[in-house]
Amino acid sequence: MMKHITEPLLPVAAGVHLLAMMAVTVDKVINKFKVEPLARVAPASTRDRIAFACKRDGNWEIYAVDGEGRQQVRLTTLASQDRYPVWSPDGRKIAFESQADGRVDDSSKFQLWVMEADGTNLKYLTTDIVAKGARQWSADGKRIVFESTRDGNTEIYVIGADGNGLVRLTNNTVDDRNPGWSPDGTKIAFASERDGNREIYVMDADGRNQKRLTDNPASDNSPAWSPDGKRIAFVSERDGNREIYLMQSDGRGLTRLTNDPATDDQFAWSPDGTHIGFRSLRGRNYDVEIISADGRNRLRLTDDPSFDGSLTWSNDGTRLAFISSRSGSDGLYVMPASGGSAKRIADGPVLDPRWSP
Prior knowledge:
Layout: H1 14-31, H2 43-46, E1 49-54, E2 61-66, E3 73-74, E4 82-87, E5 93-99, E6 110-116, E7 123-124, E8 135-137, E9 143-148, E10 155-160, E11 167-168, E12 176-181, E13 187-192, E14 199-204, E15 211-212, E16 220-225, E17 231-236, E18 243-248, E19 255-256, E20 264-269, E21 275-280, E22 287-292, E23 298-300, E24 308-313, E25 319-324, E26 331-336, E27 343-346, E28 350-355
Antiparallel strand pairs: 1-2, 1-28, 2-3, 4-5, 5-6, 6-7, 8-9, 9-10, 10-11, 12-13, 13-14, 14-15, 16-17, 17-18, 18-19, 20-21, 21-22, 22-23, 24-25, 25-26, 26-27
């Protein structure tokens, strides 16, 4: 296919000029039936995209839509299940998992893929590695950390965004999972069962110096660094139900952030690190709530008999996108982080929403 002409045509012979104009016209006609690349959208819109998985066409595929529900596009058309989209730090690429061999009932065959934000240049990064579960880009966008059961139990691996340099970071007979990069890219926090129950650990980005940060008979899980890298939030069952806790990045200064008889989990830091959004079961069903990082101001944003959860923050921290079953199926909704009405922006079934950086 001919490339788009982005520079003004230099003075040329009339016949050559005419051929160039014809090439541009043919190119436009061909591309009329393709997904419009995000590069052609205004820059503000490219920073306001939500990637998600949707099953409306029979199998799980990756879609993207802006925060107002406009410019909704299907990004993948693989004959397989595609899930868990994750944006690169610059918003130009999306990593996701796919059953590349199309065996939709065999979840052991998920592989790690990457594509441009407009759905072009799809590339698989792993083969026969069982890359299913948590994954995250490094801050420089050059590597992706993920978990895999290729060796019988769940371990943590890292691979270059170009598919090179696969390295196994953990090596135990029990599960190591939920890896997350520190904002400066030097550390990885994760959960491990190597000491008999699930605890929070941290290691260097190359897998060295693995250190246990929590020590409790109950399960500690899902560590997530604060945007400034000074704190780690995680979910713990140490008080009988799942609650959200905070600690310094070295494990000191443990603080219980939420405190009620119901489950509080599936959390996400606000971009500025001042708040944490999460789902809570203290109402009639799971609802979306936010709490300040000091634990003081807690606000319930939704109060609906149906499920609300799986939230993600907008890049400016003013809105939240989440999944809700209030309309009969799991659709994608957006609402102000300060509270207000929720707007349905994508029909379901929807899973795994992620707002672009």
